[in-house]
Structure prediction request, 388 residues.
Amino acid sequence: SDNIMPFNQGTLVILSILMAFLAFSIVLGNGLVIIAFVVDKNLRLRSNFFFLNLAISDFFVGAICIPLYIPYETQGRWDAGNKLCVFWLVIDYLLCTTSVYNIVLISYDRYQSVCNAISYRNKPSSISRTATFMVAVWVLAFMVHGPAILSGSKDQTEKTECRNQLLFTDYYIITTSILEFLIPTILVTYFNYCIYWSLHSRSRVRGSLVSTPNISSSVQGNSMTCAFFPMVRLPKPDEEVPSSSVKKIRKKSLFASFRTREEEETASAELTSLSHSNSVPIVLRAQHELLRDRKIAKSLAIILGAFVFCWAPYILFTIIRFACNQRRDNSWYTFTFWLQWFNSFLNPFLYPLCHKRFRIAFMKIFCKKKHTASTQVSLFTQGQCRKI
Prediction:
């Protein structure tokens, strides 16, 4: 077959080592995410289930797709039979597309948590609803390539070659490029834009809150004006105040304090999505949530950049090969082909491994003995202190 570039023996050994290392790294990184999710119950939140779904798809990229392709890449021919070839094609396209759709799902979930914080926080995290989203990602990903590959497998004439024969049909190239790359890129970009716009608006609101003191009092004659309380007339030192007036002032101030607290809670609900404590000032809570959401926006921007970097070259070269009717794989096309799989290596570092909850879970896994010993020492010290 002429679809694989010939290499000398030394180059083949180096390439085999690099490809095996990539597969091992993908399995290791995503496997750690899966193990952490199983071991630590604190990770079983709605958004983290989507991380798990992504890790599962990327895990099997390193466990199935790359190991089956290494002999084909190094030997230049497919000797595993037509059935295994069809299986490999379906699984490879399924897993890669599922990984892309999981990125969209995670971005959508982060968009909801930032831009629709109130409804996102109050909406019950139903396991069935989360599972429906996870399964839908796999079903949609299969529908993009699966039926077409299975129907076109009958036209697989060359037993020494394993490729998707529909890559040279115009309707297939256009449809899959739109469904697999263009629409996901537009959606993730849109979610990023909405998040950044929300953060920009909230930054302006927070700036106005900080510039206005919480309680600014000024004495003008016999009156005191407060930011959160209505104007109250203070009696003169020698002025007698009727008891009925005192009761009215107390009732009015008490009503104002309750009304202010309700207004504060409403404002904090619009500005924050996690903190429920009314003892923390609204400005501090808003600032805390703003910093958290900025980290989310930054991570989504990195996600979008990594996705476009890993997928855009392959889509571009696939279209060029179709336009030029080039059936032979040159070195640049092979590089972009592997770049897709490299995205499965990056994903564990772009998602769970950069989140505090997952880092704590990894510390529990790898430093279990040390963590247990430090906990016992801490309890012993507290007991001695109580005795003293």
